[in-house]
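INFO  loader      accepted 1 record
INFO  loader      residues=381
INFO  predictor   begin
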Amino acid sequence: MRRGLASALAMVLAATGIGLVAAPAQAAGTAVVLNVSQSRIKHGEMVWFTGKVTVNGKGASRSLALERRSGSTWVKVASPRASSAGSFSVRQRPAKEYTYRVRAVASGAVSRTRTITFTSGRRTLDSRAATLGSRLGAPTTAVKAATVTGKKSVRYRSYRKGMLVQVVNPSGSMRTWFVYGDVLKAYRKAGGPAGKLGVPVADPKCGLLESGCVQRFTGGSVYDNKNTKPAVFYGTGRKTEVLAAARSQVNYLQTSFNRSKYNRWAGRVGAWCSVFQSWAAAASGNARAIPQHDRWSTFLADVKRNEKTGKTPKVGALVFFDTISDGRTAATHVGIVVKVKKSSIVTIEGNTSTPGSATTRGVYQKERPRSYALFYAYPAY
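INFO  predictor   done
INFO  writer      dumping tokens
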């Protein structure tokens, strides 16, 4: 009966020239697709997480969270934003085997998970080139060799989008690392594999604060983000990653009294010398090395309780000063040591006076008498 009435109604409408209007399709909502460049990698290699966000079937710009899980807890590791077409790309260098997903912040929509696992064995220059594919591009030079102290052999080659460095260690293990972008520009300026920086110890660590990347080499580290020029710090160990990030900020000027981008990052307003040191550690992917607190007293107590302290200046050590003349001796300011001299130390400090100005403050490299230091703390880099 209903079917007959519907047919009759359609005939009447057709005869009168009036068309039937289809009911709108039900909104599909937000959907997130996540892809990974490789699901099986060797330790120290970087992967690209790419994908697309759609709303009602159309690409859309949305704030996202890349999250990883080891066990039952999801932890945010990057905060990409999809383009107006909905596409996004995030670079990561997993330290462990994790399961990843991308979540749309506003709607809570999540992608399917992707798991990264590690494989063992040698990685030749040719096999790494094949793995990277279009992200590396075509070769632009022949394969070259370099003599590097402590390495059995080093071969490297430039490509349209980067450089591969194959390293054979005395043990016979072979790995090939990727260097690219502004980090590569700084690396080439420093002499490449035959220069003072030596050879990479891993791929760059990217997806950091301010779209930052840091890469460590046998002779130091290079740090770069979207707001700075690449900064190089020579030395050994993970501390060079933190020190390179700190050096990249030299000459930053606070926006107004006790207000800086480091305050915004920490979610606080006030004196920011300790917040800057915490930012440098986090920006280089070493957040656990230097604690983060919204109060100076809490930061100081944490350092004294959980880090080794002493009177000997060392590169990478936090140095504490008393900068307030009130008749008492108490730590009121902190810097990080970048060079030790016979009677002085060279530091990088945040919320310190601008050279030549008594009223403005920022991030600067300073040289202070060793006698000015109250004590040092030695982060576990």
